[in-house]
Amino acid sequence: MQAGSNTDNITLRIAEIMIDELKLEDVTPETFDPDMDLVDEVGIDSMDLATVALVLRDEYAVRIDEDDYPKLTTIRLIATYIQDKLDSAAA
């Protein structure tokens, strides 16, 4: 994945956070497939997502509502969600 747009940068940062916070092995932010299903393919649960959501809240000042967790099944979806919130806040 190449960093380009802001959403791409957010996607890469989320991968870094997931790898660090969840102690994922054998994957780098650059090789983490942003479309991989986080529950079925990575094995994270709602507590893991809550941990990542807290880090993202601190980093981007964006709150991820718990009700939205079931919709955020990939890193790309989380990045788009954050970008949408940032765009809304800037408007």
Automatic annotation (TrEMBL):
Q: What SUPFAM superfamilies does the record point to?
A: ACP-like
**What organism does the record attribute this protein to?**
Desulfosarcina ovata subsp. ovata
InterPro entries the record matches:
ACP-like_sf, PP-bd_ACP
Q: What is this protein called?
A: Carrier domain-containing protein
Q: Where is the Carrier domain?
A: 8-86
- The signal peptide annotation in the UniProt record is none
